[in-house]
Amino acid sequence: MKILVLGPGAREHAIVLALLAETADHQIVCAPGNAGVAASGVEVAELAYTDPAVVAAFVAERGFDLVIIGPEAPLVAGVADPLRAAGVAVFGPDQAAAALEGSKAFAKRIMDEANVPTGRAERVTSVEDAARVLDEFGAPYVVKADGLAAGKGVLVTSDRDAALNHVATWAPQGDVLVEEFLDGQEVSLFFLADGHNVLPLSPAQDYKRIFDGDKGPNTGGMGAYSPLPWVADDFVEEITRTVAVPTVRQLEAEGTPFVGLLYCGLIVTEKGVRVIEFNARFGDPETQVVLARLESSLSEYLLATAEGRLAELEAPTFSPDPAVIVVVASEGYPETAATGREITGLEAAEAVEGVHVVHAATERGEGGSWISTGGRVLGVVARGATFGEARERAYEAAAHIKLEGSQHRTDIAARVA
């Protein structure tokens, strides 16, 4: 199969590695990809991947059988629309359905219409509005920018002034939501959705804060693990019934069918499971651990999703072996990341049993050296027979990687090891 994977990050590298692991001999192009993807032996192509017309022309020229859209930016920009209109099999929702991630206010409305369990929320447009709602909901305060913010538009704080400052920062760029604080363990659960039917993948838990103990500012994700031994046996079935199916059917009823990956960001509270947010694509870094455990053919399931054939398939199967990912980030991340620094030790890291490394922000320097180019640089993914073994392998491998000033959390999956 000729497959185009759109996106530049570790999530796309993980998707590419899963496709390469299949018995089928795919012809894969990743655009724009990254140096790690190129090192995997896959063609990378320079492409304005958030421009619908540019992507459509590239796909028409190359004749791909399947296009997999990785990040949220091209989805919200409408990259899927002209491709699907031209009859191309696309894994990723149209622009209208991608508003489920692109607008938190839209997502809340869909949840309300579909009777999906979630917390209270109110849209505000000014600091004065926000002050009233903050006082009504009480501390801790949850403030979210309505649009895409690369994981940095959400603030959870007990400091009322900090909450108001967050509103003041984001309100000029669009609406802001003030939400009820929900206390509990967070869960990421992915669903394949073909516009009408859904199939679940395996749950994961990610770590959004920069420092151990969930301290410090939010990031794009500092690590994750899968599966979740502490959720109820019927957890996936419950979320399928109460969240995924009603949401997808509501979007279908409104004439905006959702075809792609429905990411349900959940929290398990004393009063039951609630939806914190939806995303319209594979989450990063949870994708890296979920796909590391996938035993079914990824391409088969993504193509069936794109072609509206999920009803023909059983739910995909996963290895019982746990997987853990530890993200290695640059000095200063998430505020101001130091870049342009040499990375060593990758070969030693990947020599650790059960480990592979995904690249998020690297390039090749002179003489083939590895250079950091962003905030989250690498993801060290490990599998093991137990959580303890997977975790030990991940941290053993991470210790081999040398990047001046780099940082990583030391408590990923500690609660289950």
TrEMBL record:
<dbReference type="InterPro" id="IPR020559">
    <property type="entry name" value="PRibGlycinamide_synth_CS"/>
</dbReference>
<dbReference type="GO" id="GO:0009113">
    <property type="term" value="P:purine nucleobase biosynthetic process"/>
</dbReference>
<dbReference type="Pfam" id="PF02844">
    <property type="entry name" value="GARS_N"/>
</dbReference>
<dbReference type="InterPro" id="IPR020560">
    <property type="entry name" value="PRibGlycinamide_synth_C-dom"/>
</dbReference>
<comment type="similarity">
    <text>Belongs to the GARS family.</text>
</comment>
<comment type="pathway">
    <text>Purine metabolism; IMP biosynthesis via de novo pathway; N(1)-(5-phospho-D-ribosyl)glycinamide from 5-phospho-alpha-D-ribose 1-diphosphate: step 2/2.</text>
</comment>
<dbReference type="InterPro" id="IPR000115">
    <property type="entry name" value="PRibGlycinamide_synth"/>
</dbReference>
<dbReference type="GO" id="GO:0006189">
    <property type="term" value="P:'de novo' IMP biosynthetic process"/>
</dbReference>
<feature type="domain" description="ATP-grasp">
    <location>
        <begin position="108"/>
        <end position="307"/>
    </location>
</feature>
<keyword id="KW-0436">Ligase</keyword>
<dbReference type="InterPro" id="IPR011761">
    <property type="entry name" value="ATP-grasp"/>
</dbReference>
<dbReference type="InterPro" id="IPR011054">
    <property type="entry name" value="Rudment_hybrid_motif"/>
</dbReference>
<keyword id="KW-0658">Purine biosynthesis</keyword>
<keyword id="KW-0547">Nucleotide-binding</keyword>
<keyword id="KW-0067">ATP-binding</keyword>
<dbReference type="InterPro" id="IPR020561">
    <property type="entry name" value="PRibGlycinamid_synth_ATP-grasp"/>
</dbReference>
<dbReference type="GO" id="GO:0004637">
    <property type="term" value="F:phosphoribosylamine-glycine ligase activity"/>
</dbReference>
<dbReference type="Pfam" id="PF02843">
    <property type="entry name" value="GARS_C"/>
</dbReference>
<dbReference type="Pfam" id="PF01071">
    <property type="entry name" value="GARS_A"/>
</dbReference>
<dbReference type="InterPro" id="IPR020562">
    <property type="entry name" value="PRibGlycinamide_synth_N"/>
</dbReference>
<dbReference type="GO" id="GO:0046872">
    <property type="term" value="F:metal ion binding"/>
</dbReference>
<protein>
    <recommendedName>
        <fullName>Phosphoribosylamine--glycine ligase</fullName>
        <ecNumber>6.3.4.13</ecNumber>
    </recommendedName>
</protein>
<dbReference type="InterPro" id="IPR016185">
    <property type="entry name" value="PreATP-grasp_dom_sf"/>
</dbReference>
<dbReference type="GO" id="GO:0005524">
    <property type="term" value="F:ATP binding"/>
</dbReference>
<dbReference type="InterPro" id="IPR013815">
    <property type="entry name" value="ATP_grasp_subdomain_1"/>
</dbReference>
<dbReference type="InterPro" id="IPR037123">
    <property type="entry name" value="PRibGlycinamide_synth_C_sf"/>
</dbReference>
